[in-house]
Amino acid sequence: MQFVMEKEIRKILEEIGENPDREGLKNTPERVIRMYEEIFRGYDKKQSPELTTFPNDKDNIGYHGIIIDKGEFCSTCEHHMVPFFGDYFFGYIPENKIIGLSKIKRLIDWHSARLQIQERLTREIVEDFVGQMQPHGVILILKARHLCQEIRGVRKKKGEMITSEVY
Predict the structure, then answer these.
(1) pLDDT tens-digit readout, 16-44
(2) What are phi and psi of 150, to 5 degrees?
(3) CATH 3.30.1130.10 assigned to 47-166
(4) pTM
(5) Which of 51, 74, 105, 121 pairs with 84 at a CA distance of 20 to 30 A?
(6) How many angstroms separate the CA atoms of 15 and 143, rounded?
């Protein structure tokens, strides 16, 4: 498989007018393959994050307010294979268990590490979280810039798309 990908990346370089044997490009096919393995790790079910939980009962934590985590994410547009990236706002109301905050970040990163559209990405993260945690409620808001509209097509800088999913 790797040999086939290297060959195809060389063909792409040639098609855009480059010489794949040029000094600066000699190792580019191998680097691109390693990059794809990293940024598309979300297809590997073995890398799916385990959600570490803690009991949320009156003898332990007993918290039933909303827990909010804010962070950044980056994914890849399935239509043009360029990045889209931005901020997320994730909130949930726990039932019988709470989750370590780093696990929310890992869950978002794992789902983002695939070819995506923002609307589906938002829904998949919430569905996965609900399936594993059974919370009282969840809200996820993704606010992202899409390079497919900034560097090509309409070429509008800093436009943002906002999606939300509520359970």
Answers:
(1) 999 999 999 999 999 999 999 999 999 99
(2) -90, -35
(3) yes
(4) 0.92
(5) 51
(6) 35
